[in-house]
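Hey,
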Amino acid sequence: MIRASYPHSSLLFFEPAASTRCLPLQPCGLGTAFQESLPSYLNRLAAIHSLRVATFISREIVPPLFSSKSYSPLGNLLGSGSRYLLVGAGRASTVATLVSDLTGVRSVVNLPHVRIGRFLNLNRGVRIHVAWCPLCLAEWQDLGRPLYFPLLWSFRPVRCCVQHQVPLRDSCPGCGKVFPFLNGRSWDFRCFACRCGLWEQEAGSARIVGAPTKLEIDAARSVQSLLSWFAQTPDTIAHEALFFDNLGAAIRCVGGAKTLARMAGLAPSVVAFWMGRRQNPTLTSLLRLSLTFGIPLPDWFTRFLAVENFSHPLHPPPAADWLADRLVAKTAQEVQQALRVSLATPTDLPPSLNAVAKTIPASLSQIYRAYPALSDQIVLRHRKFITHQKNLRATRNAELVRLAILELDNLGCPVTADAVLSRLGSRWTLSRRRLRAVFAEIVARALPITN
């Protein structure tokens, strides 16, 4: 058993029977609803090899998969394209199989939930940006466990943490920046812009989000139970046939496919496409069925449901944006009102225009075109805040370097950039290149060294 260091904890790596190209890092949460997502695993795998994610993927993932291509598909695996590595039997399964061969860890192939991806159209239900529970991250950090992103947090219908009963966060608590599932750099669970920890609480009462609603909690629990069931059951159950049998029983009980669609808030053509096997159900559509009849999602795939299960439907789910397959467009009046409220709300951490657009939600280009004056005010306010924060960090970094230079001078040691870096040790959290730049600026300007 080999023990290696990680920024937040000590991880155990189990040595495989045969030699592998990469360290055999074990995925987190296997067999549970908190099973790690594939992008999160790729990030941790690159981190233990002391490589940037972009470097690791360009060296280990791209060549064997895209050797015959005349272009580099690295951009399709990073940024917004990284969400297609979450679930499914396509790109996610191909990358997971390759990573499993590189590490010798067979369980990596199960991270994208290939079985559920063959039947459900899950890509339409995943988020565009990463989301997380700050209390879970803080708890794992205190316990010395590795920090990672479970696949459960990647779905739009999951808006809260069932364990802590708090809303999931999808932007930096310091500057409001949002993040794709895979960046060019490795995650250290701090914001790339302001270095604020993702587990930290948001400052400013205007940005504190209230407790989740009962609907949000029920939806999160339902999705959690579905992922837990798929992670624990073998691939021997004919869950597709069971689902269509139960769907047919529901249609007969309520009096037709159109009636069922109206009760669940679905388009009649969607139900017809399901029964004709011409379209795979989406997670949000199944969730609406589950909430309409009060039947847990796993039950639709695991047992024959009797007529009594459909005889007393509950109230139909509301027309919430996160319960729809596609986002509902906001009116111009709603967008303008949201922008004015954001400007009128005092806060110590003014959000960026992108963060404001996500809360509406509305297209960023639409806001720029329709409301240039309001957009400029929000951008200017956020830019002033970011500039002020950068100046504060630059002042703190320069003071650290000056104090280290003073300590070396008092000890009679040679004053070089490497000596300063060695003197600072863990107090310096940025790169060696950044320290050299600060050191060179201090030497060039001959700034006075203060006690």
